[in-house]
Design brief:
heterodimer; A: about 300 residues; alpha/beta; 4-stranded antiparallel sheet; B: mainly alpha; about 0% strand
Chain lengths: ~300, ~280
């Protein structure tokens, strides 16, 4: 985390900063000509994960990034999280370049990654403890959040006693308890069965729409599931196959609050077809895509 | 108990038969493994007693269980055993305390800092492979024949397994835990105390178990050479005086102490790392 992150400066850096300052009232995340690459640990070969990404996210938007498995979307999310340095370009958050994780961001991990030696409540409290923010109010908030995700009776349970869906609920509560401005979600429901997945999507939407969340309420959600993308998103960004670039930027104008039966509406299905069409058009439908992420692992 | 209710009778025949078993039979089956252990010990003791009673072995050389029990009673009633027992306990106690304070932090740091690990790994492996008793003459030459030297040998014997185990635990740390700590902006101290240490605890406790076994050996060997008291010295002296009953009694006390210590660590493992077996 403390590792030096090498970010080559753009020649027109100052210009970019000025223009972003003008737009800062609306834009929250600025992605400026961002490329990210991996050097494979086995072969030492450098591979691009994403190339020349260029977009911005406005305040309050729920943005879903969709792409095939291993297209580089998770790598991009990790760069926004500050876990992975960008190779070139710059990601700015509220005008400031990202170099490392920050308290205004939380990540809901793909695998629940709970500490097995802590019970559910203490796992959520860890986020507060790490930020030296354990007060009666924040403790109460942790319990409220656990209630909100339906774990009121499981607060004393240990992770090995929980189902996959319950673990991901704890994972979500841990991310939300610090009141992040930007919530990052890395295929959080990918490993769940279809029914649990659908319930969890609904719960996420509920939590999202609940009043007392973070101030800015920005979310960046990664998935390879088209239905999930359209259901959750204000905006769907379609990533091409690896190395990923931005293939399409689709605004989803379905009013909130959204209910599960919206998924069967004509409007919803049309959006799904559009996203799917863009995925295929970008070549993401091609089989045998060898990914930078897989190579790096 | 063996009283079957109406509901139980609907179960399969096998479980129905199991329900009818008397309680004592069920108890024996549940404890059969421990029971066999007790039986094994009993066979050895009886064989020992019989062979010395029948004069198959010379009782002044081999002693026998009844004489050992008598010696045990006289050692405790006269209080002669408390001195040696206290000396050994003190050596092992101080030795283990210092071992814990050195090895656990050192193991945690070595596991995290790759450069340090690569630098020290060959040395630690060599030091761990060389029989630690071999260092005793050198320790005596450097530190004399006092209690410090005995404690030092205990530390020398006990540190290596604990360092190696702790380091291995840290190096096996789930990388997801590191990512969680990073995302939560945990500081170094929080990370070491609330993530690294608890995650490594199963390895640390295994290391402590190995360490205690070696610490006991270190203490006894040191007492053989540095005759300043202790159980090792006690057994040695008793044997030289042809008092085999006391010698055997001393060995028996050592065995009981070792079992108690091992059980204690087992309890701690159960208490603190229940999550890792789940």
């Amino acid at each position: 985390m403390e590792g030096t992150i090498f970010m080559p400066r753009n020649e027109d850096d100052t210009v970019a900063l000025d223009s972003s300052a003008v737009k800062s009232a609306l834009s929250y995340v600025n992605v400026d000509h961002v490329s990210i690459g991996y050097r494979s640990r086995k072969t030492g070969i450098y591979k691009d994960a994403v190339v020349d990404l260029n977009f911005e996210i406005r305040r309050g938007e729920f943005v879903v990034i969709i792409g095939t498995s291993g297209c580089g979307k998770t790598t991009f999310l990790e760069a926004v999280a500050g876990l992975v340095p960008v190779s070139s370009g710059q990601i700015r958050l509220g005008g400031k370049p990202i170099n490392g994780p920050g308290r205004e961001r939380s990540l809901v991990f793909q695998s629940p990654s709970l500490f097995p030696w802590r019970n559910v409540r203490d796992n959520v409290l860890f986020a507060l403890q790490a930020q030296h923010n354990l007060t009666p109010e924040t403790r109460q908030r942790a319990e409220d959040l656990l209630g909100l995700v339906g774990l009121k009776d499981a607060m004393e349970s240990y992770p090995h006693e929980l189902s996959g869906g319950m673990k991901q609920r704890v994972n979500l509560a841990r991310a939300l308890v610090t009141r992040p401005e930007l919530l990052l979600l890395d295929e959080p429901f990918g490993a769940l069965d279809a029914q649990t997945r659908s319930t969890m999507q609904e719960e996420l939407v509920n939590v999202w729409q609940a009043a007392d969340l973070g101030e800015a309420r920005n979310a960046l959600f990664i998935t390879h599931d088209v239905e999930e993308a359209v259901y959750l998103a204000d905006r769907v960004l379609v990533f091409s196959k690896a190395p990923a670039s931005l293939a399409a930027d689709i605004k989803v104008d379905i009013p909130r609050p959204r209910m599960p039966d919206h998924k069967r509406s004509r409007e919803f299905v049309e959006y799904q077809d559009r996203v799917l069409g863009e995925l295929y058009a970008s070549g993401a439908g091609a089989s045998g895509v060898e990914t930078a992420r897989e190579a790096a692992e | 108990m063996s009283i079957a209710t109406a509901e139980d009778r609907t179960a399969a025949g096998a479980s129905e038969r199991a329900m009818k078993e008397p309680a004592w039979l069920i108890w024996i089956r549940l404890h059969s493994r421990a029971g066999y252990g007790v039986l094994g010990v009993a066979v050895v003791l009886v064989a020992w007693q019989v062979s010395s009673s029948l004069g198959l072995v010379n009782v002044t050389i081999a002693s026998d269980p009844i004489r050992v029990i008598k010696a045990e009673i006289s050692l405790f009633s006269s209080g002669h055993i408390w001195g040696p027992l206290g000396v050994t306990a003190e050596e092992v106690g101080w030795g283990m305390l210092i071992t814990l304070l050195i090895s656990i932090p050192l193991g945690l740091v070595l596991g995290r800092v790759t450069a340090l690990y690569d630098m020290t790994e060959p040395i630690i492996n060599v030091l761990n492979s060389v029989p630690y008793v071999l260092f005793l003459p050198v320790i005596i030459f450097w530190f004399g024949i006092g209690q410090e030297s005995r404690i030092l040998l205990v530390i020398w014997a006990a540190t290596m397994p604990l360092i190696i185990n702790t380091t291995a635990g840290v190096r096996n740390l789930n990388s997801d835990y590191i990512r969680v700590a990073k995302m939560c902006c945990a500081g170094k101290w929080t990370f070491y105390r609330s993530v690294l240490f608890p995650a490594t605890l199963p390895y640390i406790l295994t290391g402590i178990r190995l360490s205690i076994a070696r610490a006991l050996v270190g203490a006894i060997v040191a007492e053989f050479f540095l005759s300043g008291g202790g159980l090792g010295y006690f057994v040695q002296t008793a044997t030289s005086n042809f008092d085999m009953d006391s010698a055997m009694a001393g060995i028996f006390i050592m065995a009981v102490a070792a079992v108690i210590l091992t059980r204690l660590i087992g309890r701690m493992e159960h208490r603190f790392t229940h999550w890792s077996q789940g």
